Amino acid sequence: MLYSIKKMFARTEDYAGRDIDKVIVNLAAKSGTATHVWSYLKEQSVYENTQNGLRVYPHEVRKYAA
Length: 66
What we know:
Layout lengths: L1 H8 L10 H12 L6 E4 L4 E4 L5 E2 L4 H5 L1
Antiparallel strand pairs: 1-2, 2-3
């Protein structure tokens, strides 16, 4: 039951259908930061480093997380 509730509220894909966790791992690796400082802001379709405020916008994801 918990799995069903989580699926209703927690998205695992971003606006383009990419796996959020995989993108965050790539962003952390490329920027030399920890994965836990990155988050995905669904309302703005942007990835953000909560430690330093760096934002990766939709058109930049390929450049920073590919």
